[in-house]
Amino acid sequence: MTVFDDVVPALRKALQDQKYLSLTPVQKAVVTSKLGGADALVSAQTGSGKTVAFGLAIASTILGLDKQFAQPEFPLALIVTPTRELAIQVKAELQWLYKLTKAQIASCVGGMDMRNERRALERGAHIIVGTPGRLRDHIERNSLDVSQLKALVLDEADEMLDLGFKDDLEFILKTSPKDRQTLLFSATLPKTIINLAKNYQKNAVRISTQNEREQHHDIEYQAMTIAPNDKENAII
Asked: Mind listing the pLDDT tens digit for each residue in 87-139?
């Protein structure tokens, strides 16, 4: 028996097609926790493979025992990210991971044409990836219906709070169904994140694969002294 045995079959095949021989620590931790529909508070830094981790975590919630999705009527999962670039990256990752399930995935991000996004939402999508402000805009304009949402993921939650998205996040959390599965991924766990988890998660499973005092241990920091007028030239 391997850790892949706990992965939904269609996603297991997608991982094999991508030549996955093993899972990263956070992916393995999420899979072996066998969350089912339970909430989770996950410590995971950028580059740890967390997109695949939460993709695996929500699969049983939104797909159930089915091998493929039916035609989309309402969004089943919402992935919230701090930036447009990350949203685009997350969407691309989920597209190959969920390819065999026939999942329709749409994005709603600031800086992109809102009319095109609205048309994509009208066509239907099972999974929506977006930034907090743009997602709130679509909900308020009734172009995004979250009434049937089964899973909600906050990716890099600490960064979203640092960027001032607290009101938007709370709006999204309050608007979506209370019985949804809520996954909160964060590199750090300041008091603001703990409070968010307490207010909007139910008996969340705590998952950590890193020493919370030693985040980004794989990054080397070096200070350099430069003249004030050389600041722009020194930026790499």
From this structure: 999 999 999 999 999 999 999 999 999 999 999 999 999 999 999 999 999 99
Q: Which of 203, 138, 205, 132 is nearest to 173 (CA)?
A: 132
Collapsing DSSP states into helix, strand and coil, what is residue 208? strand
The H-assigned helical ranges of 98-230 are 114-123, 132-140, 157-162, 166-175, 191-200
Quickly tell me which residue has 């989770």 as its tokens.
40
* Short-list 59, 28, 24, CA closest to 153: 59
Domain CATH number, residue 52: 3.40.50.300
pTM of the entire predicted model = 0.87
Rounded Cα gap, residues 86 and 16, in angstroms: 24
Read off the amino acid at residue 96.
W
The number of folded domains in the chain is 1
Pairing of strands 205-208, 181-186: unpaired
